Amino acid sequence: MNLLPRKKAASQGRSFRPGLDHIRLALRLLLDARVPWYLKILPVAALVYFIVPDLIPTPVDDAVVLMVGIGLFLELAPKDVVEEYRQALQGRPTMVVHAHPPEEDTR
């Protein structure tokens, strides 16, 4: 499992940088209703552990827990939603395709 993928952008836009862009991507996914709620627990729990590491005393570095939590969240989130936001962060136009089209008014 590649937790921190590095993708190159096309000639237009900028490259995807792991770290800050992963955090931005995770924040956008946390606010998206297409991502299941139970997956949203991963980055939130990792952030809580990062802020208050003494809750569970372990020899693991707090930053590693945060990176793995965000990376796992990005891997398990719906691929089409992740790619949509990844392209938006790279400055490339995206076409949003939702799983359920809006209902038509039948009056």
Terminal CA distance reads 50 Å
Tally of extended strands? 0
Radius of gyration, whole Å: 16 Å
What percent of residues are in strands? under 5%
Provide the helix percentage. 40-55%
Q: N-to-C SSE series?
A: HHHH
Biggest sheet character: none
What is the tally of helical segments?
Answer: 4
Mean pLDDT: 75
pLDDT < 50 runs, ≥5 residues: 4-13
Main structural class? mainly alpha
Describe the global form: elongated
3D structure, described in words:
This protein is mostly helical and 107 residues long. It has a domain at 20-89. It is built from 4 helices and no strands. Helix 1 (20-30) crosses helix 4. The longest helix has 15 residues, at 62-76. The radius of gyration is 16 Å and the shape is elongated. Residues 4-13 have low confidence and may be disordered.
Describe the secondary-structure layout.
Blueprint: H1 20-30, H2 41-51, H3 62-76, H4 79-89
Helix pairs in contact: 1-3, 1-4, 2-3
